[in-house]
Amino acid sequence: MIYSSSLKAMTDVLSNFNFWSILIAASFIIFIGFIFQRKKLIFSDWEKVVVKIILYAALPALALKSFLIDINTEDIWESIFIAVIGIIFYTSLTFGSKYFFIGKTKALQDALGMSIAFSSAVYFGVMIVKAISPDQQKTIDLYSSLFLIGFWIFMYSAADNIMKKKRFNKNEIENSLLNKKEPKSFLSFIKVFKNPVIIATFVGIFLWLFQLIPGVKIIHINDEYYSISRIDKFIPGLSQILNILAPLASPLAWFSMGAVLAKSQIKEALKSSLVWWTTFIKNVITPIICVILFLIFSLILKGITGNWISSLAFVLCVAIIASPTANTIVGYAIIYNKEPKIASHVGTLTILTSIITIPLWILVASAIGATQLFS
């Protein structure tokens, strides 16, 4: 029975027209970015402009839009568990990923550890799962935003500090001792909350949870009542603005990744055993860790509420973790001169291999999600 349900789930994914369409579309846009960069049809350092558009417009719009839906009190425990799983996962990987590279220099441990801890979460896994389940768009946005709370906080705080940390060789230690160390302050952690994506995420969470307050459903539209926190329902143009900006993140990121590939030394990346080892951990080991966490917490949720975590949430989060290394981490490596060459090689190879490994992980997760361990 379990075998037949798992096989059916995998068959449904493989026979899904939208599944193959989004894979082809993503590959094609990456290829366009590659050609544009190779033919020099785009101006120098254009990526900085694109990154700012994604960071300051598209991703905040996507984060806020994700929470502007009616809250379902029956699923509130599942939502909390998804956020907790994400925080546990990113806490563990942020501070524990370096142990995959014992014996390497501290600088390599930092760069490669962060490369496997953080994915291009929104651009690949989320979009593919959306293509598979087009009728679950709002739910997918909510699940992904909850799971990525830990991602945004740690990538712009701990990951930044780890990549920024100076690693001296023996000849530099004496000189480094003469320099004054910057005093650590709680204010340095607070800076992370100035990030527009994090601001939009927490504003969205507040508006979403605000609906739990009795008597707030007073906005009457088309014979239905909405909470006053559903600002998209009564602020003119807000819904349209979010709907226009939010989808920009993925195509712009795919185009940028194609350009990054064009600038990369792909042949050199393919020859490095360390780059392949890091890619294996990123594409295989970290999704396995995610699967284990979901299995454990699904059992806990069953014990508390009598319900399992939904298979949709499970498949989505595994796909997110299986996505290639985040461009932000490669950017940190370049800015802080923390093994930028090998970090770029890892980013390049994870992009190339994820085109194959993400669909495989979606198939595996769909098969597991079809068992009685998920709803």
TrEMBL record:
<feature type="transmembrane region" description="Helical">
    <location>
        <begin position="241"/>
        <end position="262"/>
    </location>
</feature>
<feature type="transmembrane region" description="Helical">
    <location>
        <begin position="197"/>
        <end position="221"/>
    </location>
</feature>
<feature type="transmembrane region" description="Helical">
    <location>
        <begin position="274"/>
        <end position="300"/>
    </location>
</feature>
<keyword id="KW-0812">Transmembrane</keyword>
<feature type="transmembrane region" description="Helical">
    <location>
        <begin position="312"/>
        <end position="335"/>
    </location>
</feature>
<dbReference type="GO" id="GO:0055085">
    <property type="term" value="P:transmembrane transport"/>
</dbReference>
<dbReference type="InterPro" id="IPR004776">
    <property type="entry name" value="Mem_transp_PIN-like"/>
</dbReference>
<protein>
    <submittedName>
        <fullName>Malate permease</fullName>
    </submittedName>
</protein>
<keyword id="KW-1133">Transmembrane helix</keyword>
<dbReference type="GO" id="GO:0016020">
    <property type="term" value="C:membrane"/>
</dbReference>
<feature type="transmembrane region" description="Helical">
    <location>
        <begin position="80"/>
        <end position="100"/>
    </location>
</feature>
<feature type="transmembrane region" description="Helical">
    <location>
        <begin position="142"/>
        <end position="159"/>
    </location>
</feature>
<feature type="transmembrane region" description="Helical">
    <location>
        <begin position="17"/>
        <end position="37"/>
    </location>
</feature>
<feature type="transmembrane region" description="Helical">
    <location>
        <begin position="49"/>
        <end position="68"/>
    </location>
</feature>
<keyword id="KW-0472">Membrane</keyword>
<feature type="transmembrane region" description="Helical">
    <location>
        <begin position="112"/>
        <end position="130"/>
    </location>
</feature>
<keyword id="KW-1003">Cell membrane</keyword>
<keyword id="KW-0813">Transport</keyword>
<dbReference type="Pfam" id="PF03547">
    <property type="entry name" value="Mem_trans"/>
</dbReference>
<feature type="transmembrane region" description="Helical">
    <location>
        <begin position="347"/>
        <end position="370"/>
    </location>
</feature>
